[in-house]
Amino acid sequence: MELIRDARSLHSIHKGCIATIGTFDGIHLGHQAVLRQVANKSIKLKLPSVVIVFEPLPGEYLSPAHAPARLMSFREKFYSIASQGIDRLLTLTFNEKLKTMSANQFVEDIFVNGLGVKHLVFGDDFRFGNNREGDFAFTKRLGNTNNFAVVPTSTVEFEGERISSTRIRHALAASDFFLAKSLLGRSYSISGRVVFGRQMGRTLGFPTANLELGRLSSPLSGVYAVKVNGPNMSDVRGVANIGVRPTVNDNMRANLEVHLLDFDAEIYGQRIDVTFLSKIREEKKFSSLDELKVNIENDLRTAHDWFESNSFLN
Asked: Is pLDDT above 60 for 70?
């Protein structure tokens, strides 16, 4: 899949396509239905398929301290969209210029002059342009004027309720991993490169793999039983802490660290996938490193017992 990093990188070869637009955080079953719709129309009309997204997400730009936690990093989103058979991903830089751009100007600059869209699949809850004036009816009207079709997406539901990124965040916050899996079409996981940390876990006798989160904040916080996959490792059991590590962290920056059970190999620099299975406890600040060590030992026992009781799941 070709990555087009901004509208300024659009050229004449990019004109004429089937497109859709949105934040696409999580690539859940609803998103997947939209992407199939785009891919199928692309094949039928023999035109490239394009997904348009924003980076940073609008909420992250407008109110970074209160923006919804990302379900996936940009890298995860890129590969997930690529796996759906999409030809191109256009990333629009969300900044003050884009924030204040009128919906009319957006249609002219992006849909018409930039991409030469012939067929646009438009989500029922998506809005664009200054004051969010670009809704479905508006876009369809301008599509008629500029000779491109605008069609709606179909709402995808689970248990009578619409599937959405917000619903998945709520499921994860409640540690309802079964519901999250039902909405995503896969178990919830976080992927990242293993980087060097402060080696505090190794000092305590529990070495951890530290991952780059690739997002402002995570939808999960606490200690979890997980399984880990990566080069030369398949469904390795582990215990993950995701949060700010209040006992030892001075800068209070959130991170993800995983202690792998029954696994001892060098994995620095590798990209791994951490799949969350069950929550063990909330993150907590302990009065000393000795108290922290005792609680880590308790976490490992709890995780071991969970894996033994739920071996049919992993």
From this structure: yes
SS3 assignment, position 71: coil
CB 37 within 8 A of CB 82: no
**The tokens 């997400």 sit on which residue?**
57
- What proportion of the chain, given as a percentage, has pLDDT over 90? 76
Residue of 232, 235, 283 whose CA lies nearest to 257: 283
The bridge status of strand 233-243 relative to strand 255-260 is: antiparallel
* C-alpha to C-alpha distance for 19 and 4, rounded to whole angstroms: 14
Dist CA 149 CA 296 (whole Å): 57
* Architecture in CATH for domain 2-158: 3-Layer(aba) Sandwich (3.40)
Q: Collapse the DSSP code of 35 into the 3-class scheme (helix H, G, I; strand E, B; otherwise coil) and give the result.
A: helix
Domain 187-313 bears CATH identifier 3.40.50.2020: no
Q: Where in the chain are the domains?
A: 2-158, 187-313
Nearest to 202 by CA among 163, 260, 145: 260
Name the CA dihedral angle for 234, 237, 239, 240, rounded to a multiple of 10 degrees: 20
Q: What is the mean pLDDT of the chain?
A: 90
H/E element, 60: helix 58-62
> Does the predicted model carry a pTM greater than 0.85?
yes
pLDDT digits (tens, 9 = 90+) for 238-273: 999 998 654 455 555 678 999 999 888 788 899 999
Distance, in Å, from the CA atom of 105 to the CA atom of 112, rounded to the nearest integer, reads 10
